[in-house]
Amino acid sequence: MAETGNGEFSFGTTTAEEKHKGTARNGLTKIQTAHGKKVATVCHDDSTPPVKAQTIDQLHSLQQKKRSAPNTPLTAQGSGGTFSPLSEEQRQKQQLQSISASLASLTRETGPKLVKGDPARKAETPKVAHGLDHHFAPTISVSDSSLKFTHVLYNLSPAELYEQAIKYEKGSFITSSGALATLSGAKTGRAPRDKRVVKDDATEDDLWWGKGSPNIEMDEHTFMVNRERAVDYLNSLEKVFVNDQFLNWDSQNRIKVRIVSARAYHSLFMHNMCIRPTPEELEDFGTPDFTIYNAGQFPCNRYTHYMTSSTSIDINLARREMVILGTQYAGEMKKGLFGVMHYLMPKRGILSLHSGCNMGKDGDVALFFGLSGTGKTTLSTDHNRYLIGDDEHCWSDAGVSNIEGGCYAKCIDLSREKEPDIWNAIKFGTVLENVVFEEHTREVDYADKSVTENTRAAYPIEYIPNAKIPCVGPHPKNVILLACDAFGVLPPVSKLNLAQTMYHFISGYTALVAGTEEGVKEPRATFSACFGAAFIMLHPTKYAAMLAEKMQKHGATGWLVNTGWSGGSYGSGSRIKLPYTRKIIDAIHSGSLLNANYKKTKVFGLEIPTEIEGVPSEILDPINTWNDKKAYEGTLLKLAGLFKNNFETFTNYKIGKDSKLTEEILAAGPIF
Fold first, then answer.
1. Helix axis angle, 498-507 relative to 660-667, nearest 10°?
2. What is the model's pTM?
3. Has 372 been annotated as catalytic?
4. Which is catalytic among the residues 151, 271, 354, 477?
5. In this predicted model, what pLDDT tens digit does every residue of 176-189 receive, in sequence order?
6. pLDDT digit string (tens) for 392-402?
7. Catalytic member of 372, 574, 617, 659
């Protein structure tokens, strides 16, 4: 390009003669750049050296730094008894061999051929990365799937998983807050009727079966049929996601879990919900203690024995495996592993609990039990206390520990004012399930139930500002059982003895209003053993006995807190004000409620305080708030009858060598 005398520009090349004359081929004066008195005849950008790439692919490869391998020696002994660090190639080979073994079909002698990385970035056929080395011939003929490579996307970061989800999974979007919005498909909640547990010689005696139990049996053969179906589906894919992570922040009792899935959504969900290993821990991960095969995009065969739909969630405790078919709802993985912990931990003398847990600045720990709508999340999230966890915990001889590495919060009607911590946690890295958002701004409408009312957010626990990391604490000082009593007859707070704590823990009571049915205004009692019947494996009395033993040993006090109605049932009374409940919880934490004066109620025999600072004394005894005393007594007896009918499921179960403890628990229930 050259400049004319009148300031115009023209493109062209110059000859030697034109260079000498200072003119371009078209007769225009060429550009000259002055640097002081010196004239430069060439104008170019010399601010940075050129990139070291010959192609656009090479340029993209320069964009991402290679991950540095941990320098910790994690290998077998070398000569002379010293550790010999593995090369990166050897590390990757061992990793792939372990994953290949997990994906091995039982009808073939070897696992699939695996290679690390995104297939979309592979410009050429990768070198063979064999599974386990076998020196015998396969017992069946070669199949198409054994001739192909399966790419393994191993422990990807949230940023990498975002890319995979947005590029390949329809319904994945980045919201205005930075969270990843996803869809779980046809299933937007758990399918408890499609959950199966293998019944074998060991589990037949160990597990809770029969009336009231969440454990529906299946045989070993049917499990293997479904496992084969899931593994074959995963092996047929071009790529699978593999997460190696931990459960339980107690390092002495943590469980190594491997999750094999087909969706980036599932991989990111479990990245958030399980404990994330450090690079050093990951290199030394080895063989997992438990493996999930999530083939949820592929249905089970409805003609298979024990199948009642195209969905099946199957657990085999002997094989330490879980198979998911026919549902993409990620919560099945979370709660499936929780059920496994309910089996494994008690065998070690550790109590597994469906509870929230927080700790004061002086180290006083409180456990919060409660079903949906009781305020468990709200009351366990306290800016004056550290959050150990919101849902799943273990109580061992060392104290309490969170099972998970994240939180799974409900989003329906979420607001910054009501739940600021959850609101602020919904940012980059968080998974938002089944929410609705504005098409252009991508702002989420948390009140919209178009997809489902069960909208959820899954995020790492460190997204909560006052989370205690690591998520462990000393032995609990208080055990708080929450109930939203819509009948309006339970007191706002009661101090429980050990037998009463066990009774109400086994009952797991709350009451909900059947507002979805037109004209129905009567509250409906809901009982869920141990405040989590859908997830427990053993008989509820076993968990209750362990709870009582630990409470007695470590001096913990039990409390029953009603966050429901006062002055009448739903429709006539009013909800107990949240500030009053917070004052009650504060008094429990401070220890001042232990020093209060108490009196005993009729029927349930509950010890209730006569005075609490900041709480009107008249509401502490429910009968004072009812204008119709006769109606109160009738409603109280009605609720007592519901408790008694529910507890009949557990009356014939003996705890220990004699039935003494069982009799004490029964005596702690309502008497009328």
1. 80
2. 0.84
3. yes
4. 354
5. 999 999 999 999 99
6. 999 999 999 99
7. 372
